[in-house]
DUF3310 domain-containing protein (Lapidilactobacillus dextrinicus DSM 20335), 83 residues
Amino acid sequence: MSNLKPDYYATSGSDLIEHWYDKWGKSADIIMVANVEKYLERYKEKNGMEDLQKAKTYLDRLIAKQQVTPSNDDGYTQFPLPK
């Protein structure tokens, strides 16, 4: 089991991130952005490299979703990425 993708985050055979996108569509992007920001903000004080890897995992998955579904006219609210 990996700390970056523990088994207990799987729901109904798919991982939690896929569950979010199945449930909320493109609106799940904000969850991904929030998790990237969370791990980047805390890495120095908490888990160091592990938190940086988690941030990268969320960012990589977000990028992959954007490449698959780049359209903004799907009816979901688009949230700006943090600067």
